[in-house]
Structure prediction request, 339 residues.
Amino acid sequence: MAKSNSSDSSNQGARKAATLLLTMGKEEAAKVLSHMDERMIEAIILEMSKIKAVKREEKENILKEFKDTMDVLAPGLQGGMETARDLLSNSIGQEKAENILHKVGKKDIKKDFEFLNDIDPQTIASMVMNEAPQTIAVTLSYMNPRKSAEVMKSLSSELQTEVALKLATTSKTHPEAIIQIAKGIRRKYESRDQSEFTNAGGTESLANILNHIDKNVEDKILRQLSERSPELAEQVREKLYIFEDILNLSLREMRIVISQLGGDDLLVIALRGAGDDIRQHFFNAMSQNRASDIIEEMDARGKTTLREINMCRAEILNIARELEEKGQIIIKKEKEEYI
Prediction:
């Protein structure tokens, strides 16, 4: 019976660790994982792959629990967070420690808007489009610049101009007013249907983290995950690669991939809208005549939907993945090869 309780406690700890890592940036999470032993990584990754969504309340509780734990790690010493900083710095380095503690430090005004960085830009636009331009400007100024740009694109041209004017001319706003704006936006978001959960976890988040881990560690984690849940492991593998990873293949490897594509139909569609570097990478691995034929067919073909393009690219990536599993090519090279 005691053994069962121990197992439950261990699983709960792995779940909390997985949730904490998902609240961090992908690169920071990958760095933290790289300092864990194989057994810990296996347990955390398994839990991470099971997480489809995390309640906002659970996310906040995990961060608070982590902070509280750090505060009492060294009883009798003043400044719990400073103690936590020293302990983390000694174990994983100062830079990584600061990245973690930044997530659980004192709440400032910017943090009131951080939840917006995890929300789809169109959703944010729909929430603020009826707000005053000043309110929208303040909101965008405290968000990730890239996300703010996407939100701006979703606003009407007239509103874009008004918001841009407010952003350019407003230098100071009372802190209390800013906090009230953040609270109002949060209330509006939380009142939306199906807004109880944040988009954290799942196979896509796991794949993004694995993309920042050394290839050998990645392979080991995927093998272990395959033993526990082959279906989940396959879903993660499908998200590990993007079409641009083709650029990592050598000329010899490209020829192997192309030889498995059959005719030119896949390439004619997949290369539409692709960058010149990717197109040339394919063309360099085939005869000039074949490359010319593909270019002519691309020019002659009518408009192609984005869905068709993505389907053809996914099919080419699946062929490349199968070749990699057979040991005929290596898509993700070791980092040292790029130094």
